[in-house]
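Supplementary Note 3. Input sequence used for the single-chain structure prediction.
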Amino acid sequence: MLRETIEKIKQIDTGLMEEAQRRLDNLTKPQGSLGRLEELAKQVVGITGKIEPNLERKVIFTMAGDHGVVEEGVSAYPKEVTPQMVYNFLSGGAGINVLAKHVGAEVVVVDMGVAEELKTQNSKLKTKKIGYGTKNMAKGPAMTRDEAIRAIKAGIEVFEEEGKIDIVGTGDMGIANTTPSSAIVAVFTGESPERVTGKGTGIDDVSWRNKVEVIERALEVNKPDPSDPIDVLSKIGGFEIGGLVGIILAGAAYKIPVVIDGFISGAAALIAVGLEPKVKDYLFASHCSVEIGHRIALNKMGLRPILDLNLRLGEGTGAALGINLIDAGCKILTQMATFGSAGVSEKVR
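The predicted structure, written as discrete structure tokens, is reproduced below.
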């Protein structure tokens, strides 16, 4: 299934993007005057293969999982917060619920590896649990290679189960998940853990130094191979990160724009791009997180963030805002009049 999904991923349609550019240049405005909104619309055309894309159904996948490395004191919050926040998502009280509703997006919550059995019959929850949290990566592999592959496949499955989607956003929930994300970014960029590790949920300087040392220890113990993205995921990743990799791969395979959220989604994107470099052209970086490693990850993939709002919540909140602007760009392309249709005089040659 994973191999088949990767094989479906093709180059985006650059010829159709040129056609979109000609239409953008003929709209009733100075050429290029709507800046990145025009660029976003043109990329959507290339991704979807549709000269008039309609982003009607917007879906944000918020993947949840726990991390054994939390026992190393790397987070300001206990792991019990992960299931508590999942219940909050399901009841509609979280930041992602508010912003998704604001932009007309649905939120699909997925239990990829929460460390307890979630006691709910809520139909909004998709259960794809690979395990009850990962193992402590500071002492050995976070998961087996088979579990890593299963996590990616679960992301593909939950994407396919949703049916028709026009644009997808990625989100996450998992106490301590900035720690594996920092480790992943360090491996793929070659930067030191110190350079890519932030303060996550708001730890103090002493805890930050401990966090860096934990990541250094995890890299030394596991020696993840950057040429083998599944090896990296299995040794220093998380179940929800694997699920996000699957969402990203599936989006690219089905020619659907993928709007990644913040740092954790950025780490997942590095793995997905490592598995298939063509994935990069299907990605939109919604924003640049306060987490210091996020910009380094985006630069590695050649992605330019749409927004920079000092966000660091995760959940898919930045992705929701990014989706809104991408949709605006597409409406400029498809709904704005041309000089000819509006009877407006063009630029003097």
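The CA atoms of residues 120 and 342 lie 55 Å apart. The chain has two domains: 2-53+332-342, 58-325.
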